[in-house]
Specification:
Layout: E1 3-9, E2 16-18, E3 22-31, E4 35-59, E5 66-88, E6 95-97, E7 100-109, E8 118-119, E9 123-135, E10 141-146, E11 148-150, E12 166-171, H1 174-178, E13 185-191, E14 195-196, E15 201-210, E16 216-233, E17 243-261, E18 265-274, E19 291-303, E20 312-320, E21 331-333, E22 336-337, E23 349-352, E24 367-370, E25 372-373, E26 379-380, E27 438-440, E28 443-445
Parallel strand pairs: 2-11, 14-20
Antiparallel strand pairs: 1-3, 3-7, 4-5, 4-6, 4-9, 8-9, 9-10, 12-13, 13-15, 15-18, 16-17, 16-19, 19-20, 21-22, 23-24, 25-26, 27-28
Amino acid sequence: MSSKVTFAFDNNPQGVYYAGQVISGTAELITDRPKTIRSIYITINGFGETRWQENVEKSSEDGSTQVKSLATHTSTEIYYTNDQYVYGQSGGTQLELPKGKFVFPFHTTIPPNAPTSFNGRHGQIKHEVTLTIDRSVRYNNIFKQCFTVILPTDLNAKREHVQPLKRIEEKSFWWGSIFGANKPMVMDVSTSFSAYAPGQKIHFHIALDNQSDVQCQDVKVRLFKNVTYRAKSGSTASGEKPEIKVNETESRIADKHCGEVLKHNKATFNEYLVVPPTTPTTLENNDNQPIKVSYTLRFIAKTFRLHGGGDLVVDFPLVIGTVPLLASAGDLGPGQTNSNSSGFVGAPVFQEDVSSEQFESNTYKPRYPVYNFNGNGQSTAGNSNGTTAPTPSLYPKAEDKPPVQHTANPVSPAPAPAPAIHKSPPYPTAGPNPGTNFEVLGFSIPPDYKPTPSAPADSSIGWK
């Protein structure tokens, strides 16, 4: 490969930033041969896009038949962009980039309202650094590096997040009515809070009173991630307003199996479900957002389909944030707390998204804050020695960062002056020195040379 670029973020090897922070680093360019270019520039940007296809039916021109076609719905939103020319200038003249290694710094501030990074089935919210070598004759050389941006969601900002989740549901089955005893299955579920952060344990209490004649095969607790994608369909060339299309997906990111409950029996389960590293809930009520994320905590009493009526299901909306509730530090279950808990949450570690979904060819997995809670309900920073790391600042000061050491921008070398060429004339410029040979038309004449005397006039020359 003729060129290679390695990106490095200052004091941030994982490339994770909060919205509003300063991002800085270097791009190391290595070229193995000279290049003729116009400029080199670094772009730092964030954007969101959605795209999917679906089969649609449209009436023919005469309206007699339905024509099937494949429609593409797409949308793009630019959140911020910043271009920095590090060599040359926009639309400049041709320059010579010599062979070698060069380090270019980059620096900008992420907007405080920049959305959290996301990679899903039908869309993405992407933040990346791009180095572009603008070539005058050939195609541009483009090198990219993604980084994670997190819009902070402090669960302590809303009082309703402290409220527990609690509900009682019952269900009857037609199987029992055949034998004249149509008693229900009753499930009472509750949690300590209605909002959690990745790494926390969702402690729950389940009391299942199976008065029916149907066996409960398994009591399951599942956490589902719900994503709503929005895109535009249609063309604006005719002046018509494009139609807004919506695509909703649901994927399971955590699962807990509690056990079975036989008919005419009761059971109680006090368990927990760990929240994996995942995208925080989208709290802004903006219908124009291309991607919105929400979560559902689902309790399921699984039964045989043959018995009719389906499963007994209880759903709760759950909020996932980036800063856990202070009151949840000592949570041991609904109505239970650890008296020894200090309420200090500590600093998180950043782990890759648990979801395996990706948008088209984007294989980058964003990293989200995860709080590693110990046995006392308190969080540690995840170090090997159990000590807490400093709490990350949302607005780091520039002077806290050491200066970046980098090489100077390459300068196009000035053309070397042509060497002076001295040509000898094809003839001698001075007479020969006495006593030395001299050259005439390539023949060497000795110094004692004497011309041959002319033949006498009366001499006869002829054939004999």
